[in-house]
């Protein structure tokens, strides 16, 4: 049977899929905390409000003071350990709900309401965390604060370009972050989304892995009403083949569908069995620019609820099922055939091990 030249090129540029065992310990690893992690959308926290968040098993009270400044303190009062998020904000201070001790943004106790004024305040300090706000997201640095300035938040150039429509996508998974991350790298699961006309015939054409990053390119075909809506096809029955690029730059993702969309997926690992994500999806629509500008906010909400949430709900079901089966038997053997997933597992394990080794060196040095 003759093979057309274009098909031959595709075949030649395909990366071999071959069976490899999965290292189960990737489901037990922790994070490297020396990166910025997203914890909330900016609009979730108004001035004088407190929000409890968890960044990899660390409970943190985030508050916005009367001057709109953000602060993040360990969510445990140094007096008796009561959670701060049930307290209140007084000007720039956080007031504990139990005895009313006041703490500044550095976490230092600055007032005890019932302590006679002539008496010195005890030395009571809550841990504080570097915090910042960018792209409508609140970010915390849970690791060594002296490294916070050296590390950057992912660059999102589309954020200020008006031709893109931004869709904010929150997600919550009862699963380890490695399972969630593998779902994002795994373009071969278009089968799951077939009823909502996702994508088909994926081919892995490029894979580059470094210490902190995995970059994969897939060639993917699209057909149906959704691809027409996204300007991929002129009519529903036409098939269009495009390149999907996915870059995992520990611990977050950037993925693009050639000329159509750009997705920044910011991951928040919460615990061994819980993960959140804060994603910014940028899409270009067929609609006239003035229409998009007029109903930008509503359009984002509609697109999220009626289009992309369906994809996410299907993914959540698979991801949580994977976690449950793993928990029922952590020694069960699994087989993976996508080398991009294996590369991703290596990066996640290496980042955790690197952090553990650094922590060990520091503690040996102190002893
Ligand atoms: S426990 Fe916070 S003031 Fe007493
Ligand atoms: Fe999916």
TrEMBL record:
Listed PROSITE patterns: RIESKE (PS51296)
Annotated transmembrane regions: none
Domain Rieske stretches: 36-140
Keyword entries, A-Z: 2Fe-2S, Iron, Iron-sulfur, Metal-binding, Oxidoreductase
Annotated InterPro entries: Cholesterol_7-desaturase (IPR050584), Rieske_2Fe-2S (IPR017941), Rieske_2Fe-2S_sf (IPR036922), VanA_C_cat (IPR044043)
CDD domains, alphabetized: Rieske_RO_Alpha_N (cd03469)
PANTHER family noted in UniProt: 3-CHLOROBENZOATE-3,4-DIOXYGENASE, IRON-SULFUR DOMAIN CONTAINING PROTEIN
One example GO MF annotation: metal ion binding
The keyword Flavoprotein is assigned to this record: no
Pfam families linked: Rieske (PF00355), VanA_C (PF19112)
Protein name: Rieske (2Fe-2S) domain protein
